[in-house]
Amino acid sequence: MELSGGEIIIRTLQDEGVEYVFGYPGGAVLHIYDAIFRQQAVQHILVRHEQGATHMADGYARATGKPGVVLVTSGPGATNAITGIATAHLDSIPLVVITGQVTSKYIGTDAFQEVDAIGCTRPCVKHNFMVKSIDEIATVMRKAFYVATTGRPGPVVVDIPKDFTAPHIKIPYEYPEQVNMRSYVPVSGGHSGQVRKAVELLAQAKRPVIYSGGGVLMSGADSELRQITRELGYPITSTLMGLGAYPSSDDQFIGMLGMHGTYEANMSMHNCDVLLAVGARFDDRVTGEIAHFCPNAKIIHIDIDPTSISKNISVDVPIVGDVKKVLLRMIELLAEDSRRANPAEISAWWDQIKQWQAKKSLAYEASDTVIKPQFVVEKLWEVTNGDAYVTSDVGQHQMWAAQYYGFNKPRRWINSGGLGTMGFGLPAALGVKFAYPDEDVVCITGEASIQMCLQELSTAKQYALPVKVINLNNRYLGMVRQWQEFAYEGRYSHSYVDALPDFLKLAESYGHVGMKIESPADVEGALREAFAMKDRLVFMDFITDDTENVYPMIEAGKGHQEMRMHPKAGELA
Amino acid sequence: MSKENRHIIAVLMENESGALSRVAGLFSMRGYNIESLTVAPTNDPTLSRATVVTRGDDRTIEQITKQLNKLVDIVRLVDLTEAAHVEREMMLIKVRATGNQREEIKRLTDIFRSKIIDVTESTYIVELTGDSHKLDAFMSSVGDDHILEVVRSGVTGIARGERGLKV
Ligand SMILES: Cc1ncc(C[n+]2csc(CCOP(=O)(O)OP(=O)(O)O)c2C)c(N)n1
Ligand SMILES: [Mg+2]
Predict the structure, then answer these.
(1) How many CB atoms lie within 10 A of CB B40?
(2) CA-to-CA distance for A407 and A430, rounded, in angstroms?
(3) How many beta carbons lie within 10 A of that of residue A417, not counting itself?
(4) Is A320 helix (H, G, I), strand (E, B) or coil?
């Protein structure tokens, strides 16, 4: 079979089993678009902005575990994609992003729409490849998918000069069966001696905590995590990225930890004697001030990426390996000897945790006059039976989504935790909807974030993607306002969002259904009405309390044990 | 804070155009210190070998080696300073050579076992190889007033004995 470079690219996607390519055309990729036009196997989705394409592919990847694929043109196409590439990079999401490049002989001449895409993306990709001849395309594509999806996943950029995709140059096509990269050999097993040490340490523990992160989801290890946690009977907390790997409604789950985690999760961290960190990376939003972090704990850390281990926090038992494989081995070892050294201490530890739980750190002040954002999220949970795919943007609404939508299943909570990219939510939701057309897909957003990738409402119309947008409209860059209230004596510098659009009409102008909800009494009814419209995108503009803050909170420079609670915490509990 | 030490990290990487910028980019992006960086192809034309001289406490050096290893173009690396090794740097130095200085420089060159490789009426070029201290010592012996131009290769190194860095 003889194919042109453009055809080869599309054919490699087909051979990788890719269903969707999210993209936007332009000069440098016209040959590739022509190849797309003349085939049916891979469906191209026309977005409205290249950032939207990357977030859509990213949402698809997070929900399915399969790599997301993006195609953009050179120059501004590539630079527009960078925010989404960096977003995927910080959360270890597998993407293959194909960027067109100017014709090879013009490279370096400041040609029209030339940008050094390899140089621009280098710091925010797992790897990138510059294609140097048509003969290389198939191998490079094969390597790109391999690198993106193995080890610690991440985005890979493939930059292809236009002339290598020209229709008149054809070469024999064969998709390489194997990848041979001596410089890239992902680890898997985990050192058996270390695993044994970890199990011994866990069995000896008196005040243990399991701290799980997004790596558990990446590794598909949620059932192993459940198994080992139940087997041990120890409390488990999760990072923002790991929510859903362990069911939130389970008794052993003590809530999210970190900056806006629960009091009980953070106090347990601070007081634990053995910490089992699984697929988490001790991010500063999780640890609080490092000097105060887990002062008395022996730390076991399982991660596939050696650079995550002892980067921020020195650990006692490092285990480099795939979380699933390591947990399976630990479960086997635990089964061989089910004795726990300190059952009485463990039960005392649980009593202590229950006392912390009694503080009800997530309690908020209910109101029947103004809509409380937490209330909307709670009602959303009820209306969707806690079973929806929920994406979010970045800000207070993101934290409320994480705190009040109790995720019980993996891969249903989709947010930009690492980069914190406003604009992520809507396109990510559309990506999820492509993957799961029959599931409820919700984007919880704020009036500021939604405006960063709003144009994708048009993509949603074109491809009939009936997601539900929950706009928690507080007229503020709420998270910024909250920090200004706490740390800048209420000097609200540029955090009020003036001149907002009428979101209802805006939604309608894109051909969707708009709703404006202003009273707490209407919240549930409106949600039920919206979710009954199975085939319509409904944009729900909830006018919420503009002074509400996210509690509890670890402020800058503070440790886990110094949380700032709701000002009325005593009464609310 | 533990002590900062000087480390020489030898890196074998794919002989690809982007590989060097990945290494250099890693150091600037993560704020690691870099004293020198040299690169050239090896006897295997598909591989380049780089030598990086850096400074940091044990934890930082551990991160640097792990981060380098994580770069997809890097095949293997070794911290030479962990065991017996030889390090060398080459310097070409152009010095003012007039009057008494001509004899004086000639004498210094002999003491340092270096070579004068170019002579004009008023200048010498001296070629000197050794560890970095030796090059520093030569420069201070000549004195700033007499130095016209200096070029140093940066440090390269190799492990002694059977230990080594091969694919
Ligand atoms: C692209 C981008 N720019 C700036 C920020 C900083 N930032 C974090 S939260 C936030 C406010 C978000 O406002 P909104 O979407 O209304 O959410 P709210 O906090 O009010 O719920 C800002 C500006 C960011 N995270 N991303
Ligand atoms: Mg807002």
Answers:
(1) 11
(2) 20
(3) 25
(4) strand
What are A159-191's pLDDT values in tens digits? 999 999 999 999 999 999 999 999 999 887 888
Contact A58, A87 (CB under 8 A): yes
Residue B17: its chain A contacts at CB < 8 A?
A: 130
Tokens read off for B134: 């030796």
d(CA B154, CA B50): 11
CA distances from B152 to A190, B10, B87 (A): 44, 18, 14
CA distances from B159 to A96, B44, B61, B87 (A): 39, 18, 18, 9
> Using a CB-CB distance cutoff of 8 angstroms, which residues of chain B are in contact with residue A310?
59, 62-63
β-strands A389-392, A413-414 pairing: parallel
CA distance A86 to chain B (A): 14
| Integer angstrom CA distances of residue A119 from A129, A157, A159, B18 | 11, 11, 11, 9
Output the six-digit token pair for A282. Answer: 């001790």
The ipTM assigned to this model is: 0.92
Q: Do B18 and A130 touch (CB under 8 A)?
A: yes
Q: Give the helix/strand (H/E) hosting A539.
A: strand A538-543
Tens digit of pLDDT for each residue in A221-253? 999 999 999 999 999 999 999 999 999 999 999
Residue A147 in contact with partner chain B when CB distance is under 8 A: yes
- Rounded to 5 degrees, φ, ψ at B39 are -145, 145
Strands A253-256 and A298-303 come out as unpaired
Cβ contacts of residue A492 below 8 Å, gap of 6+? A476, A481, A484, A485
Among A181, A306, A310, beta carbon nearest to B59: A310
- Closest CA in chain B for residue A186: B70
Q: According to the model, what pLDDT value does residue A339 have?
A: 81
Neighbours of B33 (CB within 10 A): 14
A307 close contact with B: CB closer than 8 A:
yes
Whole-Å CA distances, A482 to A341, A423, A433, A470, A550: 45, 20, 33, 21, 8
- Residue A250 makes CB contacts below 8 A (sequence gap 6+) with none
Query: Quick check: B72 and A126 CB within 8 A?
Result: yes
Matching residue, tokens 């152009």: B94
Distance CA B107, CA B104 (A): 5
The angle subtended at Cα A568 by Cα A567 and Cα A569, nearest 5°, is 95
Tell me the pLDDT tens digit for each residue of A201-223: 999 999 999 999 999 999 999 99
Mapping DSSP onto H, E and C, the string for A64-124 reads HCCCEEEEECCCHHHHHHHHHHHHHHHCCCCEEEEEEECCHHHCCCCCCCCCCHHHHHHHH
- Residues of A with catalytic annotation? 50, 112-113, 162, 479
Q: Which residues of chain B have pLDDT under 50?
A: none
Most B CBs within 10 A among A183, A185, A311, hence the mutation to make, goes to: A183
Report yes or no: A185 at the B interface, CB cutoff 8 Å.
no
Q: How many CB atoms lie within 10 A of CB A318?
A: 19
